[in-house]
Amino acid sequence: MDQLGEEIESVLYIAREVMVYQVPPLSTSSGHKAADWNVESFLWKGRMRVLEIGERCELRLEDANSGELFAQVRYARPWTQVEPVLDSSRYFVLRVEGDGGKKATIGMGFLERGDAFDFQVALQSFARRSSTPNQSQDPSAPLKPSAPPKDYSLKEGQTFTIKLPGRETKKPSSNPGPTSEGGSSGGLFALPPPPPPGRKR
């Protein structure tokens, strides 16, 4: 990583060799096609680096030996600076920026499909991070939970009963006595108390 002032520059992806092509005007409104280019005759060949610098992303086309900058793309919302072609996974259309704010459209191609896939993954990862709010950047922003928490606490006056197998609760009797089974508990109902001594029925 290189430190540029207050910003940290990190390399997201490096392609050792890419080709740059002249892009003809669009023949249809659906998009560009590599078949419309002369892919056997490229304008330039060199290295491409995808850099994350602070909160922005840059694509730099550079000479592989000297590092001299050929073209640069500032990749930002709405992410239209890099466009895949319709008929190949190895070719892309880049909207580059030149000196004085001049802009142009060029074609870029990879030798291998795997390189093109890794390039797209690097851009998608940056776009995903940029689309996720960073709480540390704005401490005043409230956190938004995905769903409101449920309140399981009992309100005033609320009760609930838990029934455990084999532990059924018995209501205490106001006049406990022996049961129909001769015990002090476990019966279905209580017998009336015996008559007082000395009285027969």
Any chance you could write out the topology, listing elements then pairs?
Layout: E1 2-4, E2 7-22, E3 44-53, E4 56-62, E5 69-75, E6 82-84, E7 91-97, E8 103-110, H1 113-131
Antiparallel strand pairs: 1-2, 2-3, 2-8, 3-4, 4-5, 6-7, 7-8
Biased composition (Low complexity): 172-182
InterPro entries: NECAP_PHear, PH-like_dom_sf
Protein name: Adaptin ear-binding coat-associated protein 2
Considering the chains and any ligands shown, give keywords for the structure.
201 residues; PH-domain like; eight-stranded antiparallel sheet; 1 helix; 8 strands
What report would you give on this structure?
Residues 135-151 and 179-185 have low confidence and may be disordered. It is elongated and about 130 Å long. The protein is built from one helix and eight strands. It is mostly beta strands and 201 residues long. β7 (91-97) and β8 (103-110) form a beta hairpin. The protein has one helix at residues 113-131, and strands at 2-4, 7-22, 44-53, 56-62, 69-75, 82-84, 91-97, 103-110. Strands 1, 2, 3, 4, 5, 6, 7 and 8 form an eight-stranded antiparallel sheet that branches. It has a domain at 13-131: Pleckstrin-homology domain (PH domain)/Phosphotyrosine-binding domain (PTB) (PH-domain like, Roll).
N-to-C series of helices and strands:
EEEEEEEEH
Estimated radius of gyration: 39 Å
User: What is the CATH topology descriptor of the domain at 13-131?
Assistant: PH-domain like
Uncertain spans, ≥5 residues at pLDDT below 50? Answer: 135-151, 179-185
User: What structural class should be given to the helix and strand makeup?
Assistant: mainly beta
Q: What fraction of residues sit in β-strands?
A: 25-35%
Please count the helical segments: 1
By DSSP, the count of extended strands is: 8
Indicate the overall shape. Answer: elongated
The CATH homologous superfamily name of the domain at 13-131 equals Pleckstrin-homology domain (PH domain)/Phosphotyrosine-binding domain (PTB)
Tell me roughly what share of residues is in helical segments: under 10%
**Mean pLDDT across every amino acid position:** 78
Name given to the CATH architecture of the domain at 13-131: Roll
Q: End-to-end distance, in Å?
A: 108 Å
Largest sheet properties: 8 strands, antiparallel
Oligomer: single chain
Top-tier CATH class of the domain at 13-131: Mainly Beta
